[in-house]
Amino acid sequence: MSETLETRPVPQVETKGGVIAYLAVDGAVKAAELYRKAFAAEIAAQHPVDDKGRTMHIHLYVNGSSMMLGDFYEEHGHAKVAPAAITLQLIVDDAQAWFDRAVAAGCEGIMPPQKMFWGDIWGQVRDPFGFVWAFNQAA
Fold it and tell me: What is the pTM of this model?
């Protein structure tokens, strides 16, 4: 029997980083594709989608760290909720380039990178799924 996307085992991947953000989004496959374009994410592993187009798990590498995401499954008690009180911060060498790429990929610019009172260059975008991303560049 040949393996299909539905039967192929999910590969073991290296988890990078100590604390891993695990986002619940409405459209995890679309989010992963946006993150690939906006934040140079690499898809390390992805569970197959179900008949509703949802996936329970995607593992990404973003800026040297792991990040995970999956769709909401309301029928299993995982109701859709909007993101709140979270910022995903990326430590980068060129905050303006990261900001520009994210905006070009479809994120909303919240605060263009600028020198902050603590001395670093910092800016923010909001992705179409409601998550805020910040870019911090040491000055």
Answer: 0.86
